[in-house]
Amino acid sequence: MSRRAKCFRFVQCRYDPASGRAVLAYDMDGQALHETLTFPWAPWPPDASRQAAFFQALEILHLIAGISYYKAGLAIDINPGDSRIDKSQAGFLNELYRRGLGEFAYVNQLDLSELITFKATTDVVPPAMDLELPERALVAMGGGKDSLVCLKMLRDADIEIQPVCVGGSELIADTAKVAGLPLIRIQRKLSPVLAEMNAAGAWNGHVPVTAINSAILLCAGLLYGYRYIVFANESSANEATLIDSHGIEINHQYSKSLAFEQAFRELIRDRVSASVEYFSMLRPYGEIAITRQFAAMTEYHAVFSSCNRNFHQDGSRIEGRWCRDCPKCRFAALALAPFMSPEQLIGIQGDDLLDRQDQVLGYKQLCGLGEQKPFECVGSIAESRAAMKHLGAQPDWQDKTVVRALASHAEIMQAGALELHPDPTAVHCIPSAILAKLNAA
Fold first, then answer.
1. How many CB atoms lie under 10 A from the CB of residue 424?
2. What pLDDT, on a 0 to 100 scale, did the predictor assign at position 2?
3. Which helix (H) or strand (E) holds 185?
4. HEC states along 364-419?
5. What is the pLDDT of residue 308?
6. Contact assessment for residue 308 and residue 294, using Cβ atoms and an 8 Å cutoff
7. Mean local confidence (pLDDT), 330-350
8. What pairing do the DSSP bridges indicate for beta strands 31-38 and 77-79?
9. Taking Cα atoms as reference points, which of 57, 71, 72 lies closest to residue 24?
10. Per-residue pLDDT for 243 more than 60?
């Protein structure tokens, strides 16, 4: 196929209340693309206001999910079709597509700064709805430690919770089972035409999946009746993965960042309903502080995984829960080690990554020791350095191959102490009603 498309068009989005099936339709130079989502046993809201809010949320999902297909052709012309886009929403979409595709553009050596141009199609948009929603939380589950800590915090605060995930991961189902909670699994099926385009040489790479999942859960919250849409994104997601030669920040975790969270909250307030609260429970926390809590949650140690090779549209790409050779596995070991013995960590991951010579380079990348931080959802460089410094002073860990190789670096020796508590000055979007219950707990 010709790589550069001429026109990418948002055709339509529709939902069938009888089947719980949504269809998102797009077109790229005459090539039809249809994505489907299925919301299991989704009741259709009885009140007209929630129905109207759902369709406004579905339109937002249609526009956000289009990024998965747009990137394949990077069309010069973006045709929003019948989508009702005002100036504010056009600004949101331009920011999301440009920053959310920042890593994709960097890896493919592309300049998207002048290419992505969503334009307002109207000055008049449907008003946001005033809704009556139950005071309960729909909690995004990812199968890793962060979402499990988030779930426990809400549970301890006596907030009614419902775990939910996008996709059919059995690993996520296992964690919900240990929690003793039912799991809503929303099925997302990408257009098979996209795979054909990729096989034919279309552009491919990272997209802001959390932004797409956030829009899916917004729709789910309105269908099932939940006021709170809760994610477990933490402070290190705000850190740029790198700064390119033009001084532009490239953040693998942009759609997990506070900047995205605030922008999406504003869009929900203006276009859907101020009654819906979308937020991250763990924003004041760093990865080490989260891991400290998770280390005590031993009931989950045999079933969780922070290895992303488990989580793909077409299922897991490894046997077991850990590949033991990726940035996520390395960082999980580094973050857990301060709170457990080598034997306990081996019991979780099946190997001691901190005692393998072939992992030294990967840990240098995590610690920013003359290497680029990996494009992955890992903790900040400062956290990695602090953890490595801490291990260098621990009898159980200081003689491990990786620790011995890195603990004497000046940057490690000058690192700060482990941050074991949430930052009381951190900017976050946790509603006051939730904070009051957390404090009481």
1. 6
2. 59
3. strand 184-189
4. HHHCCCCCCCCCCCCCCHHHHHHHHHHHHCCCCCCCCHHHHHHCCCHHHHCCCCCC
5. 79
6. no
7. 97
8. unpaired
9. 57
10. yes
Provide the 3-class DSSP secondary structure of residue 14: strand
Looking at residue 441, what is its pLDDT?
84
Residues present in the chain in total: 441
pLDDT at position 245 is 86
The residues with which 33 forms a beta bridge, in sequence order, are 26
The residue whose two tokens read 């099932």 is 224
pLDDT confidence of residue 140: 98
Q: How far apart are CA 288 and CA 335, in angstroms?
A: 6
Cβ atoms within 10 Å of 145's Cβ, excluding its own: 25
pLDDT reported for residue 311: 55
Amino acid at 389: K
> Which residue type sits at 282?
L
Burial of residue 33 (number of CB atoms within 10 Å: 0-12, 13-18, 19+): buried
Does residue 271 contact residue 125 with C-beta atoms inside 8 Å? yes
Angle between helices 170-179 and 145-156 (to 10 degrees): 30
Phi and psi of 71, rounded to 5°?
-60, -25
